[in-house]
Amino acid sequence: MLRFALRRLALMVPVLVGLSILLFAWVRALPGDPARALLGQRATPEGIARVNEVYGFNEPIVQQYLKYVQALLGGDFGRSIKTGQPVLDSFVEKFPGTVELGVTALLLAVVIGVPMGYYAARHQGRFLDTFIVSGSLLGVVTPVFFLAILLKLVFANWLDLLPTSLRQDPRIDATHITNFYVLDGLLTREYDAAWDALVHLVLPSVALATIPLAIIVRITRAAVAEVLNEDYVRTAESKGLAGHVVSRRHVLRNALLPVVTTIGLQAGLLLSGAVLTETVFAWNGIGKFLFEAIGQRDYPVLQGYILFIAIIYALINLVVDMAYGVIDPRVRVS
Amino acid sequence: MTIPLPPSGAGTDPLLTTADDAPGVSLWRAAWRRLRRNPTAIVGAVIVAAFILVALLAPLLTPYEPGSARWSGQVTPTSVPGPSPEHLLGLDRFGSDLFTQLVYGARQSLVYGVVATAIGLTAGTALGTLAGGAASVGGRIGGWVDNAVMRLVDIMLSVPSLLLAVSIAAVLGQNPYAVMIAIGVAQVPIFARLLRGSMLSQGRSDYVLAAEALGLRKRRIVMGHVLPNSLGPTVVQATLNLAVAIIEVAALSFLGLGQPDPAVAEWGRMLVAAQDRFEAAPQLALLPGGAIAITALGFTLFGEALREALDPRSRR
Amino acid sequence: MTGAHDQPLLSVRDLSVRFGLKGQRQVAAVDEVSLDIWPGQHVALVGESGSGKSVTSLAVMGLLPDRGVEVGGEVLYRGEDLLTKSPKEMAGLRGSEIAMVFQDPMTSLNPVITVGVQLTEVLLRHLQVSKAEARERAVELLGRVGIPDPARRLREYPHQLSGGMRQRVLIAIALACEPKLLIADEPTTALDVTIQAQVLEVLKDLVADTDAALLMITHDLGVVAGLCDDVNVMYSGRIVESTNRNRLFANPRHPYTGGLLASIPRLDSPRGAPLTPIPGSPTQTLPWTSACAFAPRCGNRVEACTERAPALEATGDRDLRCFNPLADADLTGAAR
């Protein structure tokens, strides 16, 4: 297992090197000269000179790249041209918000999606199956941001049930240790703060969960339907095992394999969807941070963000692959 | 009913001929037959056809110009005029006819979606053929080419597709082609990987071995047999990707990276604009949002039906 | 307990299985099938693929899907109709009273669970044993089906075992609770020819040891010859000939049986004599309702064969469904 992880980590290196070259070229491909592009409209000659100095735009290209990589390895992902704050610092500060949102959404998707898909497969062709299948299809094709707006309209504006913006009511003077607000509330025993953070989570996580939920329902349904036709399920039934033993040990154990594989892909959807969801709900995470950076053409932030996301995405997929190895013995051995 | 007895030979016995002996039908023709009988395919096709018709016939469907804001005087911060005889669906928040905006939005989505997917399909198929072909032909150079292409694909796949499109659109700046190119390029690795995979699995099939045993040249087998037989999944993926592309066009607009010309009607930007008139006029959000979802639904249904038709085994 | 030998252990009466949803055109996979199995008796059900023999066995096990299938007739096990039993009652019988070995060992074991769990779960379900006892018994069972180092194999997963090994495991699972009736559905078909005989031997020994009755489902008359007392030949969902093994081999009457025998090599046939296959394929049938399904492929066809349905009639030493049966010891005319 360790060797597998190390090998996968080693395989990440060329991809990340390639990506860093692309990102490096990317800033230089910006329209106009790079310093001006980085500084935007309000660039002053002094500013341009400073940027040229910092980024070394006057040096030979190879040297520039090496300098860039050296900075990256030292944890320097650049600085925001708007705030001057190191990009990595902003990520570290805002990432927990995105993780809190993404993990909640993923949990929702799995906890609701797997039983729904299982039920649908077991009752193929009946009314509820048709309902679930159609619903999941709608879930796949509805844009996240549209759904977010709809939820906001219905649950906040019309029914006035749930908060529609921020991660926590600013009037609650909560202490933040980890920046996972719900967790912080529990750790500091400020239960009202934890509750408030949880209530704020509801709409954004539901919006973000929809597409992964729909996909998990469809994959679970297809996988269960396929496993139900497998010979080993018939063998299990021929043993006279109780229904729940057949379902759990023989059907679900096998049907969940493709579901686990897709969770890695879901991570990509969650990271993209977070940008849109966080924007609609003014959720203070890296997604909203990216949105603001796009609006301000804050290229160092964009550049750092893409690299950061690529690393996170690769790590998530590594973990998923390792988890797959744990549940599927056929992969484990080879 | 009389049957000649006994038959002179098994092959000529009239009782022995069955549908199995019917002249062979091609893969695509058989797929077309299955498609016509599948209600899902028909619903999808109807939605897609309606969408294309609306997009093409936009000027005939509405008497107004898009983005004209001619009636901006009637719009106040608290109220947006609803349906009236002159305006089927009322006005949008800038004072343009909402129906006109929606109809011309379809045009925009169609053009952007098709061009983006065409870019992705063309470049992806080229890369996929290069990698798949190189890997099938083999040899040191083949392996090297395959490796190089696939590493490039890996790099592109290392960033989630929408975010890849975002970063490409950001570098291209605000112009109408930026969105199409960004979304198209973001689709390239998907097509490339898919095509290479299906070429490799086709390359391992018995008919290829048989052709090799007959002494046919590998390059000929790959281009003449393997590639045409591998294109099915790619076509399916292109249909499904049209749905994704249409959603992503709207998403990029939503993120402020879309078509810069405010006079052009675009569903994603209509949604953004609708947000601050929410309670007064929810239809401003519901209609374009619904339009995106229904269009995407049409392409998805049709794509999935097509997949089933081309590969009946995948059917549940 | 009623006397074990007064009545058949299993008595299938006029079984029919129809596929297709209500309202749609139904397809009869099995029709008018009757057969008896006495305690300890070995009975064969022979036919080509698609003849309905596997469906028959699944009907006996109560393992047919619950939707889109209509089952008629009776399946009497010790005088009680299994078709009227609740799913729960059936589950109680399966694995303990009636067990089954399936055709394909490569797909019949759950790939993500150890062999040990798959073997012990049937013991824990039906016998009053502790986990430790079940394990002990599992080791012993694996040893009996000829798997070396059974304790280690229990901790392994199916993919670590060869096809022959897996089929041995499946046989061990089926016979774990010493059922009274074992149904073996083509248990050796998927195996290498060299392994087939070994696995068959294991199956034979274990069935003999446990005194189980055996319903052997096969297309291979060679398997029947070495194992079974009575033989039922099925074609297109119906039994066409049913008799004692020796009589069947010495003197097949139904042209289909004759064709089956003519298409396997025999030691007593002259050297160099060609094997005669049955022409056509099992998909080329006529509906039993208005003709003999075998008529299109039959060398003995007469006018009546395509005009009405032959009935299964008791003719002296056997049951036969044919208008123009083969004459005594007429092997050569079987299929031209």
UniProtKB/TrEMBL annotation, chain A:
Family annotation (CDD domains): TM_PBP2
InterPro entries per record: BPD_transp_1_N, MetI-like, MetI-like_sf
GO CC entries: plasma membrane
Principal location listed in the UniProt entry: membrane
Transmembrane spans: 101-119, 131-155, 197-217, 255-276, 305-327
Keyword set includes Transmembrane helix: yes
Membrane topology: Multi-pass membrane protein
Boundaries of every ABC transmembrane type-1 domain copy: 95-324
This protein's name: ABC transporter permease
Lineage: Bacteria, Bacillati, Actinomycetota, Actinomycetes, Propionibacteriales
From TrEMBL, chain B:
Domain ABC transmembrane type-1 intervals: 106-303
Source species, domain of life: Bacteria
Subcellular location: Cell membrane
Keywords noted in UniProt: Cell membrane, Membrane, Transmembrane, Transmembrane helix, Transport
UniProt-listed Pfam families: BPD_transp_1, OppC_N
Membrane topology: Multi-pass membrane protein
Chief place where the protein resides: membrane
Keyword Transmembrane listed: yes
InterPro entries, sorted: BP-dependent_transpt_permease, MetI-like, MetI-like_sf, OppC_N
Chain ranges passing through the membrane: 41-61, 110-131, 152-171, 177-195, 285-306
Xref: CDD domains: TM_PBP2
GO CC annotations on file: plasma membrane
Any GO BP annotation: transmembrane transport
Family: Belongs to the binding-protein-dependent transport system permease family.
Name this polypeptide is given: ABC transporter permease
TrEMBL record, chain C:
Protein name: ABC transporter ATP-binding protein
Entry keywords, A to Z: ATP-binding, Cell membrane, Membrane, Nucleotide-binding, Transport
Location of the ABC transporter domain: 12-261
GO molecular function: ATP binding; ATP hydrolysis activity
Membrane topology recorded in Swiss-Prot or TrEMBL: Peripheral membrane protein
CC per GO annotation: plasma membrane
Biological processes per GO annotation: peptide transport
Stored InterPro entries: AAA+_ATPase, ABC_Ni/Peptide_Import, ABC_transporter-like_ATP-bd, ABC_transporter-like_CS, Oligopep_ABC_C, P-loop_NTPase
Record-stated family: Belongs to the ABC transporter superfamily.
SUPFAM superfamilies hit by this protein: P-loop containing nucleoside triphosphate hydrolases
Transmembrane region(s): none
Domain of life: Bacteria
Chief location: membrane
Entry annotated with the keyword Transcription regulation: no
Subcellular location: Cell membrane
